[in-house]
Fold this protein.
Amino acid sequence: MSVFDSPGSSLGDSGSSKDRTQPQPSEWGFNSWWRSLGDLRLVPCAIAVWSVMWFITGWQWGLWLCVGVSAVCALVWVVLRRHATQVVIAWGMVTVVLAASVVVGGLRIESISFSPLVQAAEKHKVVDADVVIRTSRTSPTWGIAKVEATCLKATIGEKTYSLRQPVVVFVPSASAERWLDYPAGTVLRVSARLGETSREDEAVATMKVLGDEEYVRGPGALQGVVESMRSGLREAMVYSRDDQAALVPGLVVGDISGMSMDLRDEFRTTALTHMTVVSGAHLSVVLSFLSLLARYLGVRGRWITVVCVAGAAMFVLLCHGGPSILRASAMGLISLIGASRSQGQGSGVSKLSIAVILLAWIDPWIVRSLGFILSVLASLGIILFARHWADRLSTWLPRWLAEAMAVPLAAQIGTQVVICWISGSFSVAGVMANAGAGPWRAPATVFGLLAAVLSVLSPFLASCAGFLAGWCAAPILVIAHHLAHLPGASYPWPTSPAGMIVITMGCLMACLVIPWMLSRRWLVLVVSFAMVAIMVLPPYQPGFPGKGWQIALCDVGQGDALVVRTDHNQAILVDTGPTGGSLATCLRQLGISRIPLVVLTHYHSDHTGGFEEVVNQFHVRTLLVPHGGGDSSSILTLADSRGIPVVRGQTGSSANIGEVRMVVASAWQSPLPSSGEVESPEDNDESLVVRFDTPQMSVLATGDIEVLGQRVALKNPSLIAVDVVKVPHHGSAKFDPLFFEATGARIAIIGVGANNGYGHPSTSALSELSNLSMEVIRTDEHGSVTISHSQDWRIVTTK
């Protein structure tokens, strides 16, 4: 029995098997596929609900706009109601749903403004509150824990309010580890200062914890069993390799706490991250397995439905059943039903539309959730294409393998446009990685789930199931590791409107071509070999990096990675950007294979996150670091393990590397310890300021120095006067105009991520640079950039 056969029978029919013949080629045309979509009248209703909730949760005027649109739609329907056509009936359905959404969403949103927490947050009051932990994570650089919680009770002034509203709790580094050890469902009493959240956030307020927390009670009995199963799953992996033991909990319940940053980067590069994020696919696997197991044990009829519902409920609890888990479960159930043979695509699309409407009514903010958007698109792709493509593949592949390859391929096509928009890159490796890893995901998830369940009964049996789960996860790890390190694993993709239109049209064309291709074995092999060839070669962009380039700024998102060329294949690297910033790809595009010196201006993660990737893939000879600038332990430990000499920067220290002369213009160290804040002024101002002189130009690397650090650097005016300046702190508003003026630079380059949320670069900084007649180049708009100078200045960008 195939995965697509199981849901229709398991969730409703009597259990009798039906003879389902293999589709004939004549049945595979576009017209027959289109007719199979059936009744799509609920699709406009779902789009209308999504649009209403998006506007209402985004802007104050959004509610009144939606009220006006609803009134216009109702007026049009009144005029046309005498004509009982299908269009008029559909218009009436949209109008009713639209009006209901305005009422439901409007009441939900506006009622929050009267919440005591919201009113207290506007004044940043200190409250005593009881909060129940939902999920938690920690900042990789500053050790601050960010905890998603629900506020049960709050004492504001002399009044105590009973509440049940979502909040985000920020815990200082001194208490972060203790908070991370608390299981989900634990109730704590804290004293905290409230902060405001934006209208787009589901959380009504932020809480900055003051002092120690008070333990109130642990999770309930059922939640205790769930936490025991989660920890039992980790313990059951004792006989597996470390990377397998880290991956399996992610595949089963989305627990990636054991995955190294390198492993996460590999999954991100190969578009396999969705496997470790709880999604509808998880539930699809679980329900398919339970359905098959129940049938094997003789369960029939409606009892199979009971088994599947119980399994779905247990799965939600095991994954810490928050809103995102409920969303993923709903999408998974819809995908499984919609892709089944006993249900047409039209049935699946209708059910998906109903799920979107109901989930948006329950939680209006869910329409702004990236996970929700990806889940809906992935479910839609599976419903529309998975069974059809599996039919094509099954003409020359076993049915189970055809389905295992068709489902992730359909999901990727459905989500590709959004993924390109988010990441700014197109993963060539993603197509092959998903096709290759897809068949191993289901058995790894099933065995991992068995290990979690058996852990409360027999640790030995759990370890056996865990070993099998690890064995099934091994091919996924091999695929991710090898494909991620190919030079052309991913290509930069412009996120401009034109770029998004091109990728959208490309996906639509792929939807038409893929079915034709999948039924031809030789063509699939040819395309596969072509993709391998593309990945083996470094990404090529016409004109980039340009002949004779001297300095480059890689587009690594919200972070810095400055490259100063010293030889035809060697360069100095200043900062390594954030984790997953595609720095290795940029360096290969520049033709760099050896790095005689890495300079880390300070230790914040947007400047050091890619260091491990660099030392793993390139030969690094020396590391230059500041005396302060944040927590250096992980960086120095890694450098020591690789035998890389570490040099502490001193003001005035210099070195000649190839034809480049390097001088440390400023290496200030604060006499006070770091405050531990996320944007610590002390850490930023302790950034190394380094000048590089090439045969053609001079450039100043400034790290994240703010006003104080810039004034310290001004003490050496001759060292900071350059041709090109890397603008401090991504163009932050915290700058000294005299510093910009003292550099005298003709070109200002800014490393910054698109839609970064920090307001970088600031309008004031851009205005000041413009007033000084500097040409401003920024990576969010121009991509990676190279600069050369012989007789004329030449700037080459990737966007």
Notes: The chain is about 50% helix and 15% strand. Residues 1-28, 338-344, 675-679 have pLDDT under 50 and may be disordered.
